């Protein structure tokens, strides 16, 4: 005789009705409370755990939602929507690998689950696996062509440096959903990277017309205005954005506008109220002001940045007839990577996208070697009494990476990397025919970007790299390439490291 499954009591329709009414009315806190009360009496009721998970998700209680979804799956394990929802909750708590497994399980149970393909693609993209991400985005679009799918594809193509293709997908998303604010903004960013500022600004303004509080578009408008030296106008946009380094950018505009008293008041307030002095851009401003006006620099990100410039040789690149070096140069020459418009580069060009996230083995390998040099850097300066080392990133994530190719009379003007923590470059080709030994060298200092000067006493340092060398330095330091006059090329791969955090802007529509 077959063994019967044990009887598990279930709530009556009358008992469930109040819970469902609260849930369907969007009263999630009350629905959670009611469901929790009922589930104590009926601990094997699938729908109660499903309601709890969704309610807890909406109330920003991801850990509680995860437990509820798991309990629901223990009752009905072959429910694709639950695997999908659990994947979202796990991703929100940083459990990327487990989240990916649940998206894959949802797809296995429901092969046309295009939203699961899209979310899986987003996780792969976040891990830098762009080819895999694009494959999942394309599968999602093949199943169901929608605006979000085109938006996701656009972001991945942009990371690959394929700006023209990315633009087409953002435009397609907008055609399908004209009010898609994020798509308008990202379209603007791609147009900006191509040097088309007129159309880029139009896209930012289109975004703000749809959503005046859109953080990314306000930030991008602020950036456009400060690059146009319209500093007073830019401040309002940065302050409205409250995104990323908005506070530093607003303070920068105040300083460039030479409102020195206002600048000092705001800087002193930041120094007083911020527990950690962990903003390299603020460090640049603070050190410049201190040098300019002969006062103490009280912002302790890295007061003596010159002491933290690091130079080393990467053996795999520096050895004679290095095959690795040949592979890198071949991939730079032959891979379809678009160029990003860059006003600071004279007689040269810079790649678009994030080079270390591309699929080519040479770029991937170099990224791993650079990460090892970051570890060496941290060990070299261990114990230093500054936030640069105290808060050095545990997770090594490249905010950006790109190549720079310069030709005769080429150089990169003085600048800083505002979004970095540690910046650096690996040198692949250097001019040999130099009449002056400083030609083509790397110069760093405390002044640049036409900051207002009260005097010319701003020190500089010089690193003279060889092929295969890496130079790392605090992102707060100004730096430039000293022009060279020989009829040769100078090729390097530059990059920024930033502390782990959400460097990806979320999409909502």
Entry keywords:
single chain, 509 residues, alpha+beta, Serine Threonine Protein Phosphatase 5, Tetratricopeptide repeat, Jelly Rolls, 7-stranded antiparallel sheet, 3-stranded antiparallel sheet, 21 helices, 51% helix, globular, TMTC_O-mannosyl-trnsfr, TPR-like_helical_dom_sf
In angstroms, what separates the terminal alpha carbons?
A: 57 Å
Q: How many strands?
A: 10
Which range best describes the helical content: under 10%, 10-25%, 25-40%, 40-55%, 55-70% or over 70%? Answer: 40-55%
Name of the level-1 CATH class of the largest domain: Mainly Alpha
- Describe the global form: globular
Structural class: alpha+beta
Taking strands numbered 1, 2, ... along the chain, how are they ordered across the largest sheet?
Answer: 1-8-5-10-4-3-2
- Binned strand content: 5-15%
Largest sheet: 7 strands, antiparallel
List unreliable stretches of 5+ residues.
1-5, 501-509
* Average pLDDT reading: 92
Integer tally of domains: 2
Can you count the helices? Answer: 21
Q: Please compute the radius of gyration using only Cα atoms.
A: 26 Å
Query: What is the fourth-level CATH superfamily of the largest domain?
Result: Tetratricopeptide repeat domain
Secondary-structure arrangement, i.e. CATH architecture of the largest domain = Alpha Horseshoe
Q: What is the CATH topology classification name of the largest domain?
A: Serine Threonine Protein Phosphatase 5, Tetratricopeptide repeat
